[in-house]
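Reproducibility note. Readers wishing to regenerate the assembly model reported in the main text can use the exact inputs given here. Chain order matters: entities are listed in the order in which they were concatenated for prediction.
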Amino acid sequence: MVLKALVVDDSLTVRGYHSHILQEAGFEVEQSVNGYEALEKTLLDIYHLLVIDINMPKLDGVSLLKQLRQREEYADIPVLVVSTETSEQDIRAGLVAGATIYLAKPIHPETLTFLVKIFTAGGGGDCD
Amino acid sequence: MIVINLLATFIQEAREYLENISQGLLYLEENPADAKVLDEIFRVAHTLKGSAGIAGLTEVQKLTHALEDVLGALRDGQIIYDSELADVLLHGFDGVKELVEAAAGGQAPTVDYRQLITMIREYLPSVSDAASGVTHILRDVDKDALAALPENVQKNISVARGQGLNIFQICFMPDVGIFYTGTDPLLLVDELMELGQIIYLQVDDSGLPPLCEMDAELCYLGINIYLASTAEPARVEEVFQFVESPENYLRVAVMGEVGQSATVKVANTLADLSSKERKMFKEFLKQQQTALAAAETDEDRDWRAQHITKILHRVAQNYQWQWLIEQLPDLPVKQKEFQDFLARLVELLSESDEQELSCKETGRKTINGDTAEIDSMASPVSVNDRKNVLPSPGGSSPGGKDGEKAWESGINQPIKVEQEKLDRMMSLAGELVVAKNALPYLVKKLEIEHGLVELAREMKEKYSILDRIARDMQDTVLDVRLMPVSYIFRKMPRLVRDISRSLGKSVRLVTSGEETQLDKNIIQVLNEPMVHLVRNALDHGVESPEERQDLGKPVPATVTLRSYREGDRVIVEVEDDGRGIAPDRVRAMAVKKNLLTPEEAVSVSDEEALNFIFMPGFSTNEEVSDLSGRGVGMDVVATSLRQVNGKVRVYSEPGSGTCIRMELPLTMVTSKVLLVKVSGQPYGLPLDAVQETVKLNASQIKTMKGQPVAVLRNELVPLSDTGSLLARHKIINTDADANTGSDEEIYIAVLNTGIGLAVHDLLGEQDIILKPLEGELAGIAIFAGAAVLGDGNVLLVLNPHELTQTGGVMDGV
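Running the prediction on these inputs yields the following structure tokens for the assembly.
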């Protein structure tokens, strides 16, 4: 089974960057430009991993997380927050909202690869 | 590949962001109280900064960062937005733009971003506020260096840590040319001494050249400092904020806690992981502790315990980490159990770090301590090795292997097409529309000449389908090429702002109809004339604030840019409420430039006189100004517009303002003509030049002062005889008596100049591709060009205004 990931960020560059890393790690990647769009997508499809930004228009990452975690099918999906907001307060808010881990932007490709693989038991390849 | 693509994507994105920011800033100048817009600018700048970091453009990142600080202070009400600050921000973002464009062109930037940053920071309320933006992500401690310290120093360090002080490991290797930037590294050391106690300072003289090669003005020395301080890491970084640049190597690390013992087992297991991964893993676990501590309800805590335990089970299985399998509690995990486990795990990992450190000292294993930096060194495990450790799927995901393709598959990615291809497609679609026009001729032929009525009917049906498809196709291709006028309009606020400031005039810019769409080629052609017209309006049209006050006119003056559709034409207007143009001055100048004789000058109407400003070499402003007017002003505008089959007129009321009205075709490729018959020969009249067509009896045509006229709705319409103008049979018999009682029908195409063209017959409208006449024929102004009709005949398209103004085909021949 191919694992699906959703990359949520308002920056085209960041979306492309994260998507590329995830694709290299074997994920089928889709993108959303804000939390609202991501929420819509998650209603239509199940993603096995989300990499989200915090500071986004329409619906921010914290609100997205809170809403996702309330839904049974998304309660246990690993959600990585990758944000430029790295104050203790921000990190705590992200974690309380349900982030599996909160990371600082920019994230090194190897770091992201490592994390998504441990969070999803080795990426797309190990799950069949 | 990823690097190149990343940069290209970033540049595309950055351009858009910068445009938005610049617009936002200009808007803000007018509406400083609009917090929403400020928030939006701040957010966009913030995103730009983040993206720049990922694209590896640190200069862009740093400059944007400084600007973001100012925006932040603005947002928090610490500083006030005035035009001076607007200048600073606009200038700063211009600098960002230049850096981005330099990166786009692969060139070295021409702006000194550090100087800009220094300038920008002057507008921040105070240094400590600036520090709030300084990155808090410090580098890891360089354990090699730490281990190499003399024993007594190491002891002092642990004593200081025992007292609860932060130990900062600072390594600063300035650029050799640092003195030229006015920075003295020793001053930084002084500043550090104010923060705490320097336990150890070591001068790094490894860069010192032989004495004979030494330049007294260069800096060859670096410093390694161990500082014990109660200060926050951000405060220490702040000391170095002005030397943070790629040239000056700087490394600041704050030491974490040290464990007492080591667990060899864990350390050995973790040897599978790079130091970066190990660090990440530990960070992940620590965050879980943070999250549990911060959680608001037991439910949340329980959720996290299950969530993380599940993940760790997977990790343990996946890596076959026996020690983790042993340690892991079973699901569902109890809260207390989970917290104990987490604490134990974190402790184990910290201990294993120590173990690593001691291993390294014995030279068994090298560890790279650098983390969290995108440009950090490669991990000790090579990428290929790692693929074995962390299995990747066998190409099972679509696009997973083809990195580039996958990269492109983003949502709604615009496709870039060479303009030439699009032009070709457009012209083919145009030709298709014209070529299908041949079918009605064939239908007629079948029906009349061959009597095949049934076949003709079927063919007619097929024709109507083909007709619809061809038109749809043309519309679609046309639509691809259409761009909103806003592409031009949105550059204007900045232009108006800069010019009006430099002229000391106060001007408000109003735009409307930005969404009106035009062909891309026309937009391109229109750009320069628009800039010219706006400059003119500001330079010559708008009066100084004092003058306006004296005249009782409102200050600021208003310049309006307007765009709207009118039939299949698009109108773009540039209007100002300035001093207007005096027709008499234009008359005088026209006479002076030999464009008019003094007699003619008296007879032309004011409106006609004004339009002489579009004649080549005409300029009423005798002074040559920086901004506009070297005599090559308005005629360039007129020429540019003529290139795209557009027109320009000026309307002005002395004392109350000027309006320049440009009329443009929606598209450049096909045009509609009215087919008229003159002496059995069809001619085309551009449809947009024709206001209406009427059928008259010859008896309704009168003669006034030897000129034939018709009365339409109580208005006198002077008539031109197309037949005689084209040296064919006369249509209107000027012999007044001959017309009386005649019921001969004459068709009149009334032009929008108010003149009626008499023709023998009207044949209907047609789409054509107008081709200019070439060679010898190109000089005949009365023809706008020629087109091939569906039946293969050549159609000459008339230039009605030339035709009615000159003496027709015989004029000048």
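We highlight two features of this model. DSSP finds five helices and five strands in chain A. Confidence is low (pLDDT under 50) at residues 122-128 of chain A.
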